[in-house]
Every structure is written in structure tokens, then in C-alpha cells.
Design goal:
The relative contact order is 0.11. This protein is elongated. Strands 2-3-1-4 form a four-stranded antiparallel β-sheet. Strands 5-6 form a two-stranded antiparallel ribbon. The chain starts with 11 loop residues before the first helix and ends in a 21-residue tail after the last strand. It has helices at about 10-20, 65-80, 105-115, 120-160, 170-180, 185-200, 205-215, 220-240, 250-265; strands at about 55-60, 85-90, 95-100, 120, 270-275, 280. By secondary structure, it is α+β, with helices and mostly antiparallel strands. It folds into two domains: about 10-115, 2-Layer Sandwich (Alpha-Beta Plaits), CATH 3.30.70; about 125-280.
Length: about 300
């Protein structure tokens, strides 16, 4: 089933294979382009001799969606002068090529593009994939820690603040007695730690950008957000552990972190993100990027 293209016609890769007269995997009986005799079906993996001094480049490729296309792409690459071996893995969407140093990476990339595939160099693909993983982790931290902060507020604090909305007077009085006891210190230590960690981890890139803007003398929305959350956290901490006597709003800190993180992850759709800095950039202003040229997307990287 994985050998079917389901594309309803000839693809650019099929056209390249036909134009070069290359036998599809399992067809024909010629020698392997690497110079080794072909292995009989089922007798073991294909082997290749890579000359010493050959370079190895890895590309992230979109479009290798069947075993057949994987084999066709390997056959096309091995047919290129200067290529000693090639390996395509559709599961990871990667292509590895051993080639003579005289054959440039851009030349190999051109062959892949000729086959109708969207290509990104391995190092860029790694950065995009890592940025995507970190972004997903920040969302998980924000949501999970936000729930861990919100639950005690809903169960204990909100009923004492809006008595008519939640429980009967006896229950409210009981909850208030808990807050008046020595347990309150441990209660707020837990909430302060959870909301503080969520803020530092989930909003880490935002905090770094806001800090850089302050150093440059700029006042941005991120500076206002980070400053407001930090001030609210400091006020809540003073209220919880000193005689200030104000309301403790670790819940608002957690809610702000969740909203900002989800907005950064899913709400910003018109900007491209630098994987190294998580900073949004306009594609038309990005150096070396043609706004009309397709951009490789790897594993959800933005």
C-alpha cells in the first residue's frame, strides 16, 4: 500500500526517471550505480563503496511520501556524476548524499528541486525542528502549570472572594478558616513557584526580547507585557508573605502566561520565525528570501 503514489498522473520525479532512462526499484537488471553488483531480492541490504574524501550532505525534503518514490529518488541521485551513494528516508523526510567535493551542495539541491521536492538544508531543518519542539514544550508548560494554579483558586480562593456565586455560607467559612491558618504560607509558596516557573519558561523568548528592547531604550508591547506580569507577580508575593494585606493574584499571572503563549504559538500567522531567536520577521524583509519563493516547512516549524 505504501508503494502507491495516489497522485493521478506522472510526477516531476517520474519524469526525471523517465528522461534519464533509470530503472525503477525492482525493475531492470543492471549493475548498481555505485559499481557493486545488485543484491538478489531479499538477500540483504544494498551496499556501496564511498571513496575517501567524499562529502556528505543531509537535506530535509518534503514529497517523499511512498516507498516507491523513496527508491526512485535514490536511483536518480546515484545517477548524478560525482555522487557515490544516496539514501532517502520518507519517515523522517531526509535525504543523505555522499558526493565528490567538486559537486556542490547547491547542485545536489538543484537535482532534488528538479524532482519536484521542497528542500531545506539539514542544518536549517534541524534549527526549525528544534524551534518547533521548544515552542510545543512552552505551550505544554504554560497550559499544565496554568491549570495547576487555577485549580486551587477555583476550589479555595474564588469561593471566599465571590461568596454568593459558589457555596453555602458554612462551606465558605470553612475555606476562609483554611486561608487564615498556617497552611496559607505553603499554599501560596506552591502557587508562586508554579506561576513563576510558567512565566520564566513559557515566556522566556518574550522576556529576552523585552530585556533587549529596554537596553536599547525602546518601549514595545512585549516590554509592557513583561513589566506588567512581573509587577503583578511581585505585588502578589508581597501580599502573600508580608503584611501588605492585598489580594494574591498568581492566577492572573498564570492566565496571562497561557494567553500570551497560545497567541504566540497559534495566533501569529503572518510572520516567519527565526528558529534561533523565536523572533517574528516579515518574509518580504528577510535577507536572502524571495517572498514569491516557496519556503520549506519541517515538522511544523514556522
Amino acid at each position: 500500500m505504501s508503494n502507491d503514489d495516489h497522485r493521478g498522473g506522472e510526477t516531476p520525479l517520474d519524469a526525471v526517471v523517465r528522461d534519464r532512462g533509470i530503472d525503477a526499484p525492482g525493475e531492470g537488471g543492471g549493475a548498481d550505480p555505485s559499481g557493486d553488483p545488485p543484491s538478489p531480492s531479499g538477500s540483504g541490504p544494498r551496499t556501496a563503496r564511498v571513496p575517501e574524501g567524499h562529502d556528505h550532505d543531509t537535506f530535509s525534503v518534503e514529497g517523499i511520501d511512498t516507498d516507491r518514490r523513496e527508491g526512485l529518488l535514490e536511483a536518480v541521485l546515484r545517477d548524478v556524476d560525482g555522487v557515490s551513494d544516496a539514501s532517502a528516508t520518507r519517515r523522517n523526510g531526509t535525504v543523505g548524499v555522499h558526493h565528490d567535493p567538486s559537486l556542490s551542495r547547491n547542485a545536489v539541491r538543484g537535482v532534488l528541486a528538479e524532482c519536484g521536492l521542497v528542500v531545506a538544508p539539514g542544518d536549517e531543518a534541524f534549527e526549525a525542528r528544534r524551534a518547533s519542539q521548544f515552542a510545543s514544550a512552552r505551550v505544554a508548560v504554560a497550559v499544565l502549570f496554568g491549570l495547576m494554579v487555577a485549580t486551587p483558586y477555583v476550589a479555595v480562593l474564588y469561593p471566599t472572594r465571590v461568596e454568593w456565586l459558589f457555596y453555602d455560607p458554612v462551606t465558605v467559612q470553612y475555606l476562609q478558616s483554611i486561608l487564615d491558618s498556617q497552611m496559607t504560607t505553603h499554599f501560596f509558596i506552591n502557587l508562586g513557584a508554579l506561576s513563576g516557573i510558567a512565566f520564566l519558561v513559557a515566556c522566556g523568548p518574550t522576556i529576552r526580547r523585552a530585556t533587549a528592547a529596554v537596553r536599547d531604550g525602546d518601549f514595545t508591547n512585549e516590554v509592557a507585557f513583561v513589566g506588567g506580569v512581573a509587577a503583578l507577580y511581585a505585588y502578589s508575593t508581597l501580599s502573600a508573605f508580608t503584611g501588605l494585606g492585598g489580594a494574591v493574584h498568581y492566577d492572573l499571572v498564570a492566565y496571562a502566561v497561557v494567553v500570551a503563549t497560545l497567541w504566540t504559538q497559534f495566533g501569529v500567522t503572518d510572520a516567519a520565525f527565526d528558529p534561533a531567536t523565536d523572533e517574528a520577521t516579515d518574509p518580504e524583509e528577510a535577507p536572502g528570501v524571495d517572498a514569491d519563493e516557496p519556503v520549506a516547512m519541517t515538522d511544523g516549524g514556522r
